[in-house]
Amino acid sequence: MPEPTKKEDEEEVSPPSALPPEWSLGESPAGEEQDKQNANSQVSVLFVEKPQGGTVKVGENITFIAKVKAEDLLRKPTVKWFKGKWMDLASKAGKHLQLKETFERQTRMYTFEMQIIKAKENYAGNYRCEVTYKDKFDTCSFDLEVHESTGTTPSIDIRSAFKRSGEGQEDAGELDFSGLLKRREVKQQEEEPEVDVWELLKNANPSEYEKIAFQYGITDLRGMLKRLKRMRRVEKKSAAFAKILDPAYQVDKGGRVRFVVELADPKLEVKWFKNGQEIRPSTKYIFEHKGCQRIMFINNCQMTDDSEYYVTAGDEKCSTELFVREPPIMVTKQLEDTTAYCGERVELECEVSEDDANVKWFKNGEEIIPGPKSRYRIRVEGKKHILVIEGATKADSAEYSAMTTGGQSSCKLSVDLKPLKILTPLTDQTVNLGKEICLKCEISENITGKWTKNGLPVQESDRLKVVHKGRIHKLVIANALTEDEGDYVFAPDAYSVTLPAKVHVIDPPKIILDGLDADNTVTVIAGSKLRLEIPISGEPPPKAIWSRADKAIMEGSGRIRAESYPDSSTLVIDVAERDDSGVYHINLKNEAGEAHASIKIKVVDLPDPPVAPNVTEVGDDWCIMNWEPPAYDGGSPILGYFIERKKKQSSRWMRLNFDLCKETTFEPKKMIEGVAYEVRIFAVNAIGISKPSMPSKPFVPLAVTSPPTLLAVDSVTDTTVTMKWRPPDQIGAAGLDGYVLEYCFEGKPPKIRIPRHLKQTYIRRVGEAVNLVIPFQGKPRPELTWKKDGADIDKNQINIRNSETDTIIFIRKAERSHSGKYDLQVKVEKFTESASIDIQIVDRPGPPQTVKIEDVWGENVALSWTPPKDDGNAAITGYTIQKADKKSMEWFTVIEHYHRTNATITELVIGNEYYFRVFSENMCGLSEDATMTKESAVIAKDGKIYKNPVYEDFDFSEAPMFTQPLVNTYAIAGYNATLNCSVRGNPKPKITWMKNKVAIVDDPRYRMFSNQGVCTLEIRKPSPYDGGTYCCKAVNDLGTVEIECKLEVKGGLSFCRLLLQGVPPNIIDSYLRDLHSSNPEEY
Fold first, then answer.
1. Which Pfam families match (predicted)?
2. Which residue has the higher pLDDT, 236 or 57?
3. In terms of Cα–Cα distance, which of 318, 237, 245 is closest to 7?
4. What is the CATH topology of the domain spanning 331-416?
5. Is this prediction's pTM over 0.85?
């Protein structure tokens, strides 16, 4: 609507008190408003928005709001509500009065509300709101008026007042304002009850304006309120007009309206204006002159004609308002009661009398407001209005209504559950231990359900997953355990149907031999008891059977028997014998399978005695003897032998060695020449010493002939040498039988001594120096020859240096071409010696030849590549794979030291695009370059539903507990004493100190402290009277705990002096008692 002219503005500010009270917009007179503004015109210290006075009907609600800015406040201000001067309303909060407070973090604004519910007449009066913060204070007063309900008194209906004064006459459409100026009885129409819309708007809460406007067909509510407010003006006697226009006219859409003014002077020129623009005659606007009357007709009124009109005559004008009312929208096709099933789409349809009319939908009296997250949608197709409910539930069962300006239609919607059909029931399962359990069922409806095990709800975990996809429900348990066995039931929500299944977890029997040797051998000493316990497992518990040589070992009381237990099987052998050695078999069997194991039992004993020893050689006081090991070593290896000897005529044996002799040869010494001796042997194993062997044959020690003397060469020819010598100086008792001559070759044959580290391949990296020293022997100086791979060595690349005792091969800077087999030959006359050395020079490998992306699925990428052409003269030990996001191209290592030529890269980010590259690796390290994939891998989004993890709040509550107790203490009379302990608990416990079970309260001789859980009781200058039992008691909501100690007060300086000198308190106490008994007066 165009803005009014300047003159109109001047008229708007005219005093509105001359207007009839029926046209008041619910605002107080200007004088009262001015008084209230002056009362609250003081500069607000804390309030940003003050509560304003208001009016309410009996039984209705009203809310008063106060706002305080929190920018300069460190904490929340204190707000109090009062009625009158002294009644604090905080104590009156309840059914009819509620106090609320909120804080908006973005605007940092405190909002305080006082809501009066179902107001009564005695609630009227003056109210006051006070806010305080530290030294700041602010207050505001406001009034509440409570009126009786106007339902029983006749009221003025603005729509009845806005009626045409005649019908079918020339002045049809003229409004009769007499109904606005005086009270009159209004006849009730049968079609609709009389309702004063203006009174409703005047007394209603502003938040209800739109609802009232919709219900009573007011299309331009804001314009109506604004224009009615502007109409407050004082009627003046006009010199130009004998009769002015009525204040307002109302006409139905499409109707005709007649404006009439009567001039005091018919000669005056009259002009008609609409919103400040002059109206020209046309088929729509028709002007007539009848004497002093000036008439304007407006035909076919539309909503655009709803505006302000005025007429000028000379310098004066008079104005009016035209209200165009749309005809009420009628419901031509009613809603129908509907029945639907849960999950279905429901459409409630009605038809109205006009296209694209405004229709509001209600559910059980509450308006339905569709939104992006709402399941309700409203579709309009011309005159059809349809309410669509997606995925109906039982909560949608209600009464729905469609309301228009001319009526409403209601229907009932009943949503029931569909009959449930079990398409695939749960089946009983028998699963091996460690395998996956998958319980699957399919029902006819896509609804949720609950799983239970043995009557208890199933809780999801990393191992147990509940899957619901459409009509299929799964319970998946990875790595089945024995505790997973039980009765499982799936119960669909909202149905009484259950789907049961039994899960039986079995485990094939297993024999656990971890405690035995690698060859499953058990050793037992002959004569002792063997109890061999073998752990077993299996579900159900298997049956164990022991056997030996196809003969079962029964359970019973025999010397060899078996014993069975739930988790083990035991073989018992009482008084083990040598014949018990052998292989024993254990067989396990249950419904899941069988298991078999063999255990070797070895019974060990003392070894048999060796056979009689043989004396092979004798000397003047020694001999050499040997013997054979015993035929039976007792089941345990022979550790050595003890040797004894005696004179043949004696019966006393003497041990010759105290350390075991490991060999079967021994040399006894320090014997008497010419005396006959005998020797015998004892065998020793881990069990003990065997019986002695039979004695050897007697032998007599004899002296040995000394070497010849004065050996010399007498003559030499080409083929002969003549030698001379003298007989030995000493010839033994055995006499001299002859001489033996020997000769040897002069010089040394060649021999190469290869160092140990060169007996294997000698490896060096490219660029490193090679310096090898190979020692050799030979006389005279041998000839040396070096060859590489059968060819002579190029001395320009490899330096060879020889000496009399060694040869050195030196390469300053090794290259890969220096790799090969080096042969060394050493020659002395006709004798030769050869040796070989393998030298390998290695370098970094080249990159892989090609890298390809084989497949992309989910968050995974499969890669493959071919080995490099150049391996760096060393075996490829692995590969390193890296990835890079296409956006940043920053490389990150994914896998290192990978041996295969294909790999799967996992845990990639959905929505990113990746490149990959691969490095080769050998003993020298990674290749300098890498081979990158030509194409990239895009990790596409597959619509996975992210399920937020559920975190349970940790319960920090704890009953009180003393972490450091009280200790018995000695105190010195006249010196302050303290008792200390520490306690913890949540909520923070209350601490109480007691002396001899009596609480210490308000006693100036005691001071109590508590800091960070450390509780301290200070006793000021105690006397012997203060001694006794002290108790610290801690209490919170979860429990109570007490702790006690004894305090003993010693009097006088003697005790202090003795204590400082280090005398123990018990000795001081005894001393003081003796002193007190001897001199009680002095003490």
1. fn3, I-set, ig, THB
2. 57
3. 318
4. Immunoglobulin-like (2.60.40)
5. no
